[in-house]
Amino acid sequence: MSAEAANPVSDAEAAGPDAPGRRRARPRIDLRRLGRAALLGATAGPAARDRLPDAIGHVAEAHRAHHPDADLAVLRRAYVLAESSHRGQFRKSGEPYITHPLAVTLILAELGAETTTLTAALLHDTVEDTEVTLDQVRREFGDEVAYLVDGVTKLEKVDYGAAAEPETFRKMLVATGNDVRVMSIKLADRLHNMRTLGVMRPEKQARIAKVTRDVLIPLAERLGVQALKTELEDLVFAILHPEEYETTRALIAGNTGAGDALAAIAENVSGVLREAGIGAEVLVRPRHFVSVHRVRLKRGELRGSDFGRLLVLVAEDADCYAVLGELHTCFTPVVSEFKDFIAAPKFNLYQSLHTAVAAPDGAVAEVLIRTHRMHKVAEAGVVALGNPYIGPEGGESVEDGERVDPTRPGWLSRLLDWQQSAPDPDTFWTSLRADLAQDHEITVFRTDGGAPGMISLPAGATCVDAAYAEHGEAAHSCLGARVNGRLAPLSTVLHDGDTVQLLLAEDSPSGPSPQWLDHARTPAARIAITGWLQAHPEAARIPAAAPRPPASVTADRRTGSRLRAELPGGPDGAPPPVVRPAGCCTPVPPDEITGFVVRGGSVTVHRTGCASADAMRRLGRDPVTVHWGDTAECRVTLVVESFGRPRLLADLTEAIAAEGVAVVAATVEPPSEQRVRHTYTLQLPDAAGLPALMRAMRDVPGVYDVSRARHPATPQL
């Protein structure tokens, strides 16, 4: 029997990092404590290989701790079938092969997996490696167990060679998408294999460790199974970075009194919460090896309190905030360390309050505050949520004829969508690793016709990613977006809490440009864009439009509004200066205005705050007093942003004419990404009609913005 599956460890001994809280009266097996013991060189004793203890008893005990009413008869029957079918088979370590499915099952039992998952874990290698058939499993244990065993078996049929990895994990995702418990069994299987990796050649250890680091550890993080993730991290750390690992191990071993500093702070915290009448359990959680290594890189020399964190467990959500209030009142909080993952849970179902407080001696302790249920989910993720297909009344949860899995995180649904579109395993593999490298997720809110909804995206995602996440291939016709109510290019990077309105062209024959790939961060967007460009090679060959002089249309140039300027020191009888509105800001009544004398003695009038006027002042030009005359007639320049479509120019000029406004000049810039920019210089009979004119122009189909012109500062000398 392997050390991992045979040795019981009591709660008092289970001081390993992030040890999940269990019933204190029952000696239990702590899988990560055992993993740490293995890394430190501890052994299980010579008797472990010589006899096969009743390990199923340990599994049953761990299972009953989470599910007191569980029917253990099915586990015993599964154990008998697994042990008899694997009899005579041995692992490379020399242990009977049955120790492997037992260890995998024990890992899942400690995490709180339900009976069906444990039954499948005991049998997960029988169909592949023994004479047992899938039909036999189905007859004896039912369709659900058979489905899980078949899912794990399909993953194991592909060798873990370098060329096989992409297709292996593609199949893994397909199986996982149908039932997340398949991935749970696979992760536990990899953990036990990593624990016993020492019997393999160093180069094979390194290859398996790299795949575990690049794919399985991120998947464990995404499924919220922190208990597996942290131990896998330590095992990979020891193989791939042996020198850094030894330094960290020595650092931990040399700070045997590190727990005392945290214990003292924990005692103070407990006293504060007792005085406040808050029922809470305060625990010290030592950091695992990789966590200590990261903290050392971040902070340099470590203090005793840096080797662990405090965990405060309470009964209700409201108690979490009550604890936070007391801690921030009675201790000095480190504001930069506060995070609220209860109000905004992480993408992997994780919920907790994070903070840090400083003790009187200056020691800083990080504190995690959560309920007992939050703690269970934080440790075991989807494994702790039971059978995902059992509805509230005990029947299957069904929607549109298919089983509904409420534990499937949004990121997993996205992966399942885009993996079907990936043209080949290599593209899938590259996209998968890029997606798994994203360790943070944001939520943006869409506003489509007054019906708000949420879109979950990885951090760093842009409007392009939001378009494909929301509309799929229909996003090929996306022309732009409004982010937080303002027009934004598709390259705009989104942030948590942004509102997004995606603007799609109707019946547009065009599609994405190659430049969109520069802004796409999600696999779904990149694969969809790449697929469209490959299907339309002519689009990828079209060069970017070269800058062209804008086309001009000139009409009657009547005089603008009557403006008056007061020039000090002018000779008596001299003709009044020529006063004209500046083209950069086109002031109209009743705008606040200021004037400047330019070459030839004429005066240009700017709106107050115009960038050109500010530039004139910086050049030392003195402003002159100007004011509006009695004439209400004015000239103004408007900029129109719109989507390209037939008859757009005709519809705009018709709308302008309907308001009784004359077009002095109009320019139309070359289209860019199906968007068109128009600039109109208009003569209004009355400045009071400007707001109505702008509204009429905005109402033209395809127009999404009309604004007064503001050109860059170009002061006239």
Task: Walk me through this protein's architecture.
It is a single chain. The chain is α+β, with helices and mostly antiparallel strands and 717 residues long. It is built from 27 helices and 23 strands. Strand 17 and strand 18 form a beta hairpin. It is elongated, with a radius of gyration of 35 Å. The N and C termini lie far apart (92 Å).
Provide a brief overview of the structure:
With 717 residues, this protein is an alpha+beta fold. Helix content is 41%, strand content 17%. It has 27 helices and 23 strands.
Stretches where pLDDT falls below 50 for ≥5 residues? Answer: 1-53, 158-164, 391-408, 542-561, 712-717
How confident overall, as mean pLDDT? 74
Q: What general outline do the C-alpha atoms trace?
A: elongated
**Percentage beta strand:** 15-25%
Q: Give the structural class.
A: alpha+beta
Number of helices: 27
Largest sheet geometry: 6 strands, mixed
Rg over C-alpha atoms, rounded to the nearest angstrom:
35 Å
Number of strands: 23
Oligomer: single chain
* Termini gap: 92 Å
- Helix coverage percent of residues? 40-55%
Keywords:
alpha+beta; 5-stranded mixed β-sheet; 27 helices; disordered N terminus
Topology of helices and strands:
Layout: H1 3-6, H2 31-39, H3 47-50, H4 55-66, H5 73-86, H6 99-111, H7 115-122, H8 126-129, H9 134-141, H10 143-156, H11 165-178, H12 180-195, H13 202-222, H14 226-240, H15 242-253, H16 258-275, E1 281-286, H17 289-299, E2 308-314, H18 317-330, E3 332-333, E4 339-340, E5 353-358, E6 364-371, H19 372-380, E7 398-399, E8 402-403, H20 410-419, H21 425-436, E9 441-448, E10 451-458, H22 463-471, E11 478-483, E12 486-488, E13 499-504, H23 523-535, H24 537-541, E14 551-554, E15 563-566, E16 579-581, E17 593-597, E18 603-607, H25 611-618, E19 625-628, E20 634-643, H26 648-658, E21 662-668, E22 675-684, H27 690-698, E23 703-708
Helix pairs in contact: 2-14, 4-6, 5-7, 6-7, 6-12, 7-10, 9-10, 10-11, 10-12, 11-12, 11-20, 11-21, 12-13, 12-14, 13-14, 14-15, 15-17, 20-23, 22-23
